[in-house]
């Protein structure tokens, strides 16, 4: 099986109702690292992630992985900002992606147990997923995404509205996934989180990638004035 990377976007544009939401974007992502997508509200971070993942229809340009699109899709997962829970147990929710690809229920449930333990949800396996707290829901969403060992995991604000402790726990899971070889591409409003996790930063403003740099360089001294203003907490439009 060939590598998924590089991911190459060329002049990629997502337009809806005559308005450009993202683009044109030229971006090459390599196999290594954790990419943080940052920028003000409404800048286009979510749309950019959806575009790269292949679930936002392109209006122009291209987004290509190093393998055919169907195969690439199978090798990725996406954790949405507000994950959808099935009205079933935590165990069934985590096991579901494996059942979808034909793994027998018993085996899928055994793997779900392993993942519940890794994300710290083993105590909640029999509970309805609808009863979980925000932090628990995110852990479930991560276990459900990681159970198929995706090569790439997109995350849209995985810690939005979580407190410090839940954020730390989620970050530990993410670092574990990255160490195990999953490529992370995530949006975040939390600059502390971007500093802790990211090896590279894409700064998005008005649907364009204004700056794409190694995280250390970006946080030490962004090249673009808008990025600098954003990091200082100014309102950037
Ligand atoms: N399907 C759609 N049709 C029309 N406009 C949309 C659609 N989806 C998003 N938008 C608009 O596109 C812009 C970018 O939205 P997006 O959610 O990508 O930004 P964001 O940077 O993720 O924002 P936030 O930080 O607030 O989550 C916003 O102005 C939003 O209202």
TrEMBL record:
ABC transporter domain mapped to chain residues: 7-231
PROSITE patterns, sorted: ABC_TRANSPORTER_1 (PS00211), ABC_TRANSPORTER_2 (PS50893)
Record key words, sorted: ATP-binding, Nodulation, Nucleotide-binding, Transport
InterPro entries: AAA+_ATPase, ABC_transporter-like_ATP-bd, ABC_transporter-like_CS, ABC_transporter_ATP-binding, P-loop_NTPase
SMART domains, sorted: AAA (SM00382)
GO molecular function (one): ATP binding
UniProt keyword Nucleotide-binding present: yes
Similarity remark: Belongs to the ABC transporter superfamily.
Name recorded for this polypeptide: ATP-binding cassette domain-containing protein
